[in-house]
Each structure stands twice: as C-alpha cells, then as structure tokens.
Amino acid sequence: MLVLSRRVGESVVIGDDVTITILEVRGDVVRVGIDAPRSVAVNRAELLKELGATNQESASPSEQTVASLAKALRERPQRD
Amino acid sequence: MIATDVQTVRSVMPDDVPVIEFVHPMPGFDELVRFALVQLDDDGVLCALRSVEDPDVRFLVVPPHLFFPDYAPVLDDETVAELGIESADDVVLLVVLNATESLADTTANLLAPIVVNTAGRRAAQVILADTELPIRAPLIA
C-alpha cells in the first residue's frame, strides 16, 4: 500500500480523473472530497462489506424456507 | 392493486424464463452475472433470481411496492446509462429478501434494490444515494 502524508487542502490524483482532497481533520475524523467521473463508483468500504455479507446471508434459502414463506405470503391479509 | 402488479410481472417476465445479465456482479458474488428470474407463486409476488453460472445460488426477490408502498427510489443518471434504460416502463424494481421460515422475521434490502431493464435484460444491484434506507427492513410491518 502506498502511504502519503497530506495536509488539509492538499490532494492526491489517482489515474487521469480521480482527485481526492483532504478537506478537514478533526480529532480522529477526516473529511475527504472525491472528484471522480460518474462511471467510477464511490462507496464507503463498510457499506459494501455489509451489503456483501447481507447478500451472502440472503442467498440460497432452503426449500423449506421458500415453501413456508410462499405459504405465509399467500395467506397474509391483503391490502385493499 | 395486486392484480395489476401480477400482470406487470407476468407480462414482462413470461414463462420462457428470461436470463438477465448483471452489468456488475452483486457484492459478495463476484463471479456471477447471469441470472434467471423465476416466478415462485401463482400471484407473481415471490420470485427467485437463480444464477445460471452456479445453480446452487438463488435469491428470493419481491416487487417492493406490494410491501413498501412509499418506497420510491430515484435512479441516478449513471444507473440509467449503465442499464441502457430508455423508458421508465421498461424498469422492474425488485428487493432481495433475507428469508426465514417466519414471515415476521423476513427482511428486505431497501438500500440496494435490483433494478432490471426488461428491454435489454440488464440489471444491477444499485446502492441508492439515500444511505438512511434500511438494508434489513421487516417485510411485514
């Protein structure tokens, strides 16, 4: 991993069109600004991790789970 | 209301089991991009997205408006471009269920719905800009 020290207001440029700027440092919170083309997805790492974990957990329910869920949905009170 | 939705799901997803291609894989399943959308009940409520590449992998999905009437996610321009969406009529929105045998404990992922462009049969699990949306919303309030 490349490690750089930057001051507030300074930036790092990644590739041709991604710029990350340090906006503010307060205690252990660092605010960064990310300037990237719309085609570059920018997400918080923990959000992607949580989504991956949730997808893994959601995947491939047992036939029994599917059957009982389908039954419960069929029998649930319908909205008007 | 429900009858109309049934028609919608049926009319865009007929019996020939269309294969949908994800423009990028779902987080947690980096190898899988081709899924078949299969209806699991007569009402067109409960559906499965089954991986073509790994038939052991399937996700339960439902159209969210039947359960979350106020849920109206806005798709950003990048998603629209990536999926080649030309008309809102071509878009089917599905949410992934984290299912348990009890309906009361089953949750739906509202933060990252699956957006399908039925015209091009392309899809993506889109992380919405509204990060306050729950990743585990109880399906039945």
3D architecture notes:
- The complex is a heterodimer of chains A (80) and B (141).
- Chain A contains 2 helices and 3 strands; from the N terminus they run βββαα.
- Chain A has 80 residues and is of the alpha+beta class.
- Chain A has a domain at 1-36.
- The longest helix of chain A is centred in the middle third of the chain and has 14 residues, at 45-58.
- Chain A starts with 10 loop residues before the first strand and ends in a 5-residue tail after the last helix.
- The mean pLDDT of chain A is 91.
- Residues 1-15 of chain B have low confidence and may be disordered.
- Chain B has 141 residues and is of the alpha+beta class.
- Classes of the chains: A alpha+beta (80), B alpha+beta (141).
- Chain A: Keywords: Bacterial flagellum biogenesis, Cytoplasm, Repressor, RNA-binding, Translation regulation.
Beta-strand level of the residues of chain B, as a percent range?
25-35%
- The outline of chain B comes out as globular
Proportion in helices of chain A:
25-40%
- Give the uncertain stretches of chain A in residue-range form: none
For the biggest sheet of chain B, the summary is: 7 strands, mixed, barrel
Distance between the termini of chain A: 57 Å
**Averaging pLDDT over every residue of chain B, what do you get?**
86
